[in-house]
Every structure is written in C-alpha cells, then in structure tokens.
Amino acid sequence: YPSEFLLQKITEDNQIPVHLHVSVSLQYVAGLKGSALVEFFHGNIAEVENEELRHLMWSSVLFYKTPNVEVMACVLLSTKAIYFLLDDSFVHADEHQSDFWNKENSDCENSSFHLSCCFVLKLNDLQSVNVGLFDQYFRITGHSADHIVTCLTRDSYNTHTFIQQLMAVLSLLARTPSPEPVDKDFYSEFGSKNTGKMENYELIHPSRVKFIYPNEEEIGDLAFLVAEKMDGLTNLPSLNILLYVLAFQVNHVEGSAQNTSSLQPKTLILTSSDLFLFDEDYISYPLPEFAKEPPKRDKYQLADGRRIRDLDRVLMGYQTYPQALTFVFDDVQDQDLMQNLTLDHFGE
C-alpha cells in the first residue's frame, strides 16, 4: 500500500473544479501529487495509523445545520472514515452556527499558517446514503443532525464512483450480522400496506448501511409540482420532464473591481414546453428519523420559469466543461399578448 494505480487515480481526481474558488489552504492540497498526497493524508488528516486512503473527490457540500451555506470541500474516503476538508471561509459564513465548529485555533488567522477545518464522519456511525435524482447529488446520514452532509457533485459519474468506493470500504467493516430475514413477497417488501404507496428503492448493505435510491414516483411528483407552477397552461398527461440538472445561475455583479460574477445554485428542469429554475432543498428531504418537525421551506421553490416558444436564441460559451449557456427570451410582459389583441380588436 498504496499501489501505483491508486496513486495515479488519486492524483487524477485531485483537481478543483475550475468555476469554483477555494482558499489558499485547499489550493495547497490540490497541488499535491501521488505519494505526497498520501503522506499529507497520514500526517495531517488520518486519525488512525493503519487506515488507508481509498478515494478522493472535490465537491460542494451542505450541512444539515447550515442548509443555506454551500461550501467547497476535498472529500477523502479511507477505510475508517469520510473526511471533509473544508474551505476556511465556511467557518465565518454562518456566525450563529459557531457552536457547530470548534474555533480554538482562530488566532492563526493572521499568520502565514493556513488552517482548514476537517469534518470527520466515521464509517461506524454511518446509517444511510440517499442518492438524489439522476445521481446529481447524494446525502450521507449519521446518528444525529451534526452528522448529515450532502455532496453536490452535479455529476452522475462522480456520484456513482464515490458510492461504489464507499460500498467497497464498508464491506471491510466487521459488524454483527443482522438476523436472518423472513421471506417476503414483493408487495410487503417494497410497499406500505397503510398508504398503498411505493417506498423508495432501498439496498441494505452487509454493513447494515442503507443505500436509498429515488423511484419513479419522485419524477411523477416533480412533474405534478411543475404543472402546478404553470398555472394550468399545459395538461398534466402530456407533461414530460426531459432534463433535470443541478446547475448555477450566473449573476453579474457590476460596480466591483472586475465586474465579477456570482454563481447561484439552481435546479434546472426542462419540459417539452417550458424551462424552469428551482431553488431546491438538497439536505432536509427525506426527513431524518430524529426530525421533530418538517423543514422551514419546501423541497422545490420556483425561481424562474419561461415558455420554450418565447426562447429567441441560446448563446454557447467556447470554454470547456462546465459549459456556459445564455438563454435569451423575447421580453414580452403579457404571455398571451396575441390572444388578447385578437379579442380586443376583432371580437365583441
């Protein structure tokens, strides 16, 4: 340990997404290669001497206790725990949550010594993993509110790879075997007799960690919600969700030194007739078992919606992934302008 293949793989994965800015300390980590990266892990992050680093991933993360603060993190999976090496800006982003983080070392701020917070979730504390729609994100749940983290990979490949690596590492854990299951038929296994509603598809790993995947009903619920937002412009049976993707909306900040642009996380949903942007709650749903009350906001909140037939042109940037798209719509205030003209001028 570690093998040449693992060193090469971890080095390839150690790249910060180009569109996201991180602190100096994380830039230092991103500059490490191969064995230097493994040595850094053992010298600064690992809690046990004999644990092995198995996977590395850069991702935006959300914490259950700070659901409005999305922060960049280097996610390190070892044979003992999942480590989230966080951008130091996060500690100051949400002051009323200061008790969530230990600020003992804040006196280092002004020195040349760069400090990063590291959030540790031990594999033994892991209870379930919820995979989001179309593998755009996943939520890791431990035994309390402090131990719920969502990784917004915005990339089905990264999500799939991490889940595969996590399952492989969990297989190494020695846990007492669960009792032999009683033979169940399909309906009692997947359905609830009280509601008649299909539950989400669950895979219970031998380590007793649940991996929960969305079922077809979630898409149906989403289509119904989208149809509601359209004020009955389209009949529901013909409404198909063609695309669901986690993206960023670019807001240009004028008046600053270089007219910088800020990125607002949005969920983009494309149907056969409309384009929608939603603010989605990626961390609170489905409700954790210990939740006493529902979250303060709905899972989906409509931010913007336009009809495809009002789309004038789409401008594409020339940079590589992630691609920037600009949708230009006809600036018509009244969506049914033509119909109203007809009624006013040619009707009684």
TrEMBL record:
GO CC, alphabetical: endosome membrane
Keywords: Cytoplasm
A single MF term (Gene Ontology): kinesin binding
Gene: Nisch_1
Source organism of this protein record: Neopipo cinnamomea
GO biological process, one term: lysosome localization
Positions of the Nischarin C-terminal PH domain: 241-347
Domain PLEKHM2 PH: from-to ranges: 114-178
Entries under Pfam families matching the protein: PH_NISCH_C, PH_PLEKHM2
Protein name per UniProt: NISCH protein
Localization: Cytoplasm
